[in-house]
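Annex B, item 7. Sequence and structure tokens for protein A, then protein B.
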Amino acid sequence: MYLDNAATSYPKPERVYEAVLHAMREVGASPGRGGYRRSLEAGRILFQAREAVATFFSVSDSARIIFTHNATSALNLALQGTLVAGNHVITTSMEHNSLLRPLYALRNSGIELSIIPAGSDGMISVDDIRAAVRVNTRMIAVSHVSNVCGAIQPIRQLAGLCREAGVLFLVDAAQSAGYLPIDAPGIGIDLLAVPGHKGLLGPFGTGLLYVAPHVPLTPVIQGGTGSHSTAEEQPQVMPDSFEAGTHNLPGIAGLLAGIDFIRDQGLSTIFQREHVLLTQAELLLRAIPGVTIYGPEDPSARCSVLSFTVSGVDSSLLAAELDHGFAVSVRAGLHCAPLAHRTLGTLPGGTVRLSPGWSTSCEEIAFFSDAVVQCVDKIRKSA
């Protein structure tokens, strides 16, 4: 039983596998690298995927969608392509290392960084972030949903703050895209980083960055684009300027199929199903002596994941017992977000995190909670 969809979604809808194989076996060519039929078909798939992504996030101009290898690549491009020495960036203690580590590295290039502590429930205070704004603040960068405790952050209010302060708003949607509706222009998001392989149900090695029309972005990778070939400089046109090299066409074709599946099912239907499963898991886990669940008390303020610990039981050992004894796959440890665990009080051992997917059933959640009881009993008896 797979309950680690926050890391990557599995299984994918059947149409995703079919789209990947079609792109590899039947198309086989690179988009924009030839005038023959196969290359033109590859270009059509690429365009359709870009249009589907744009529609999904309410973006009117699909050229503002840049395909990347993952959300980490998108975050690095967003940061390195907009910041210069002397700029100040505000982020929070709930961020993933995919955002924090590039920011730490940029401090060596003269970027100033403020990390605002979240509350013990993982929620960000807009007022705390407002108080940190300086004259040289260039960007506020936050995750939409915590990958550790599922806290849904107030991005609309933060977007309003960014407009008031005249700073860029970067949102990491790694745990929200495919679960929560995101109207990027309507909310006021300037830069939106999204993985393709999580909630959007696409393959590994896919991601994207939405860039608002008013945001000046500098390429960080130069190379062939299939356009403006006589120019010595990188083409200054979206999205070519930021997509040097050959695209991961099979992955992008699979991403298109994943988005089509979500639209057919209905985003609200998928979210409601996931919410029911997490609520069921929480009720069952709270009945186990010694269990602590992290994040906002209100279930409606959480999304995607449920993190918990059991008193006196090592989280990694519990996850290993679930895997070996019951073939249940969950994530344990720090989830690449050490500051979040410090905020929640779960250092150094971290938590056990479960994240159901589109195909998870209520029966599987019941099996999981039963397995937790048996594993905890086994661990405590052997201690």
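Protein B:
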Amino acid sequence: MSLVSNAIAAPILAAASRTPEQVEAARKRLDRVCGDDGSWQDTLCRSMYDGYVGTTQQALNRYAAQTVHWLTTGFLKILFILVVAWVVNRLLRRLVVKIGRRKGGGRLTRGLSVVRRMTPSALLETQEISVRGEQRREAVLGILKSIISGFVYATAIFMALGEVGIDLAPLLAGAGVVGVALGFGAQTLVGDFLSGIFILVEDQYGVGDEVTFRPKSAAGEPVVGTVEALSLRNTRLRALDGTVWHVPNGEMRAVGNQSQHWSRAVLDVPVAHGTDIARAKEVIARVAEELRAHDPSVLEPPEVWGVQALNANGITVRLVIKTTPSRQWAVTRALREALLKAFAEEGIAMPVADSPVGDPLAST
């Protein structure tokens, strides 16, 4: 008998010698490996494997059929899940950016308070506000996009693990236990992140603002500084003497922002007893108005409120000027210089401290 005849006759003889129990076991094994729903994936798998085991070739056929069946079913499902997750993530991120930038065009940047929106004088549009509002909006949008990406891809990963055959119940239970443990162990860190989110969303302060704060866990005088950097976890401040403060956002219990939306220069001008107060107020108002005409950082006409204090040495007259954010100190310094010159020209005397009583001390 030729080799070709032997190759054709061998499978026929093997099939004829199989018992009904072997045929039934082969059928069950084939259904377990390739499935039984009649799909094209099952047909492709059955074309490579007949359900019988015993020879090396049959074992290799089984492994090849299992691999092809998984690639055409499970792998394609996982790939489809990841592609859908990528598309959904891109769409949601673009939607958030579009809505956020549209809402931030003029209303969101001024804050969320209805009362503040009803008070135009407290919300004057300046370039500093626009720039800071743009930075804050982009920071908030970045946080929202990160949250969306994390949620979408975490859901996709869990769905993909389910397709692989991993039981998700123990995995989710273990993740819950780990999350609770991390929550208890990192309460301060979580509090810092939540405080950072609210600082950004509510626009409590931003980079470049002059703020005054006292950490809730520290004693002593409040710290005054300029915000150099702001993240979700901490705030970096530069004090007047150059000291850099790194303060966790959870420590910012109460913060005074001296440069949000607008500022006010408050100058108490002392004059000597016997000075004509009406004339002194007139000179102060004239000097302040001249400064306003040359300084664009002054937003409104200056106001002389009148006598603020009386003491043994003289009389104090209060002047206030509304300025752009963080410009109140420069305006105050310029006013002092101009008032000194004007008082000298007008002959308005400023109070002088009394000389010490008694004889001078003898030199040694």
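Comment on protein B: The radius of gyration is 40 Å.
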